[in-house]
Amino acid sequence: MLGHWVELKVRYFRVVSAVRFWVEHGPGRVPHPWVRRMRVRPSAHPVLAELVAQITARPDRYALFSDFDGTLVEIADRPDQVVVPADLAINLRRVWQMLGGALAIITGRPLRQVEAYIGAAGLEASGLHGIEFNFPLTAGGSPPAPQAPRALVSEVVKVVAAEPGFRLENKGAILTVHFRQVPAAGGRLKAALEAIIERLKLDHHLKEGRAVIEIIPNGTSKGTALAEFLRRTPYASRIPVMMGDDKADEDAFAVAHEAGGLGLKVAGEHFRVGDEPFRHAGEVRAFIAALAAHSR
């Protein structure tokens, strides 16, 4: 197994190098024979082709995890404005079948929202940065998600009201402030929210995303969510592959790396082109579709 992991890492870094060359010089120039072999067809992304080959060769060795916004679907101005392709749930379900159920969603959204979009796929999932799971965590079932302290909500509402470009999304346990309309105000917003947490002496922390800042209870993250999945069947003892697009996903990347797996980044405000395998969510969906084609 160790030898397989070493081979996988070598292949991964070769793929990243190929992507960087491809982005800089265009798909028409291929510098090495091993890069040429990865170009299955002119439109294929090198990472997609390589990882599809790895995973479909031994699907029982892999567990696949994905963020939702910015990874499976493009970021929208408002969370309720995301566009979900009609075939996404179908392809996710096919990949789930190929992997023997080892495919899950890890998101900062409440689970009810994700299930409204791709519930037909029947996947296991974690929402609110590891607070919610759609399976029982104990024999008595998963406890209801806690609500953010009233004093915190009141103070954040005041901050948001003072800046027309801010927008508050109350997720219950987590408060999310969007500032996409006023990107230059992100630093000022972060300072104001840090001051609130300090003043109220709350057991919370800030997590920055793509034009958002979230106030999250301590002790939970996308990393803790991934770790929970890896303790359970069918994910345990498999190589985890996590896909994500922003800073919050880095916690899950770290857990995946520690378990001998991979963290696959999607370009955007946080990850830049050339530093990641996927340039946008459309390439992630193409990767999912390519895997799904092998499950038929």
From TrEMBL:
The keyword Zinc does not apply. It catalyses: alpha,alpha-trehalose 6-phosphate + H2O = alpha,alpha-trehalose + phosphate. Pathway: Glycan biosynthesis; trehalose biosynthesis. InterPro entries: HAD-like_sf, HAD_sf, OTSB-like, Trehalose_PPase. It comes from the Bacteria. Its EC number is 3.1.3.12. It is an enzyme of class 3 (hydrolase). Its cofactor is Mg(2+). GO terms for molecular function: metal ion binding; trehalose-phosphatase activity. It holds the Pfam family Trehalose_PPase. Keywords: Hydrolase, Magnesium, Metal-binding. One of its GO terms (biological process) is trehalose biosynthetic process. Belongs to the trehalose phosphatase family. Removes the phosphate from trehalose 6-phosphate to produce free trehalose. This is Trehalose 6-phosphate phosphatase. The lineage of its organism: Bacteria, Bacillati, Cyanobacteriota, Cyanophyceae, Oscillatoriophycideae.
